[in-house]
Amino acid sequence: MNSLSESTLLCWWESMFLSPSELKAKGRYPAPTVYKAQLKRCQNIDTAMLTGGFRALWQNLSESDAETVDEKTIIKWAMIAMTVVHVKYNVTTTLATAAGTKTENDKPVVSELRFAQLQGAKTPDELVTRLRRTLQLINGTVSMLDLAKDIEQWVRECHQQRPRRANQRLSVQWALEYYKAAK
Question: pTM here?
Answer without folding.
Answer: 0.92
